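Today's session is about reading a structure prediction critically. Students often jump straight to the picture, but the first step is always the sequence itself: look for stretches that repeat, for charged clusters, for runs of hydrophobic residues. Only then move on to the predicted structure, which in these notes is written as discrete structure tokens rather than atom positions. Here is the chain we will use throughout the hour.
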Amino acid sequence: MIDYITQNLWLLWTIVTFVCLTLELTSGDFYVTCFAIGAVVSIPAALIGLPFWVQVVVWAIASIVSILLIRPQLVKRLHEGGEERVSNADALIGRIGQVIEPIEAGNAGYVKVDGDNWKAVAGNEETIRKGEKVRIVARDSIIVTVERI
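Below is the predicted structure for this chain, in token form.
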């Protein structure tokens, strides 16, 4: 088996590529992807019969170039619009829900939004009956402020 791999080093670089891509699934920082790119670039060097040390040098240079040129572009694409993106409970603002427990003027009730129940108060101190549609306009901790649609 070892003799076969040493005579077919392209297979070793192919295995390195797939191992790196598999490891990238657990890290997500794109460094390991750059090592996989370096291994892919080393496959032609193995196929034309360059010595193993030259293949390793090709792998190292291609990996470094990938880290410097390709990784920043991948990270930029992944985090595109990250500053404006809202998440968790802040993503509720602007969503439409349905009142499941009446919201009396000055008191809280409950609304259902995307299958989750949220404690809610009316923004303009009006009474909103059960079954009415509301829009979430603000959030304070776990209490949302709603307005009738």
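Discussion point for the tutorial: Residues 90 and 140 are 10 Å apart (CA to CA).
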